Amino acid sequence: MADYRKTLEVLREEWSECTKCELGVRREEEDGEFVFGEGFPRGVMFIGRSPGRDEEAEGMPFVGPPGEFLRSVIEKVGLPTCYMSNLVACRSCGEVYDGEGALVTSTDRRTGEVKPMIGDKPPTVLQVQECMPRLHEEIYLVDPILIVTLGGEAVKALTGKPIAITTQSGIEREVEIPGAWRVPVRTEKKKVWGRKVRGEMTFPTEVNMVKYLLIPLMCPAYVLRYQSDERQGSPLHTFVEGMRKVADVYNRYMVEVFGSLPQESNF
Fold first, then answer.
1. How far apart are CA 251 and CA 41, in angstroms?
2. In 129, 144, 190, 208, which residue has its Cα 20 to 30 A from 256's Cα atom?
């Protein structure tokens, strides 16, 4: 359960040495970096799938080519306040095999040692589940105006429903995240707040769920493969149009709630 008194720095410290799944174990063995979210709260929160090689090396989300592309589009559409994170906070990777099932290897130029080639891959369902409490609490503490998922895995993990990201990119939906405390609920049969259990009065409660607006977009790494195709309907065009919609939603919220747009960038 989220704790509203906690800071993002404390949450990071609590999870920085996590080894609940194989990703954390590998991170410890390889001396890799734990990749927590970065940015500013109460703006637009971007959630990707998992850190890659560059992110693991830097200890920061979205610093490789896909991240640079994402940041450039954020600047292009004029989003001032952003926060970035991932479904899992450790690099998800494994040995690479060719089309015939043979292990791909590489030779260290310095030592001559032959090692298996390691490539990024999607985290397993179990690995995502182990890291989801961290992400849920991170979302609650960031308290974004809008969540933007990047890729099909991210939106599926948060909503519990798979979507065809190429056709449903940019379509708004709602997601519920566990919040702080619990809220009272009426009993199912008599619809009352309290009931007796073994002669004692009890009052049932449930997790306080917080609703957020969510817009799914394609994964930046996928879009980069088609960056030379600028035709209408191409992945690049669809992604940029989706980001413009994100900026419009953010700007509309700021005007309606605060009466004006922010004057300075917080990203």
1. 16
2. 208
Residue 227 has, within 13 A of its CA and on its CB side, a CA count of 11
pLDDT reported for residue 96: 82
Tell whether the model's pLDDT for residue 108 goes beyond 90: no
Residues 165 and 216: their CA atoms lie apart, in Å, by 7
Is this prediction's pTM over 0.85?
Answer: yes
Kindly give, in sequence order, each residue whose CB lies less than 8 Å from that of residue 151, ignoring residues fewer than 6 positions away: 48, 49, 165, 218, 219, 222
- Give the type of residue at 114: V
Is 94:50 a contact under the CB 8 Å cutoff?
Answer: no
- Give the helix ranges, DSSP H, for 78-171: 125-142, 152-159, 165-168
Distance CA(58)–CA(38), nearest Å, equals 12
> Per-residue pLDDT averaged across 100-107, rounded?
81
208 φψ region: left (φ > 0), alpha (ψ -120 to 50), beta (else): beta
Task: Please report, as a single letter, which amino acid is at residue 117.
Answer: M
- Write down all domains in the chain, each with its CATH number in brackets: 8-87+124-177+215-258 (3.40.470.10)
- Quick: pLDDT tens for 63-79: 999 999 999 999 999 99
At residue 131's C-alpha, the angle toward residues 7 and 160, to 5°, is 110
Instruction: Rank 107-121, 144-158, 201-215 by mean pLDDT and report only the highest.
Output: 144-158
* Helix (H) or strand (E) segment spanning residue 66: helix 65-77
Closest CA to 36 of 90, 80, 78: 90
C-alpha 129: how far from chain center:
13
- What average pLDDT does range 27-41 have in this prediction? 95
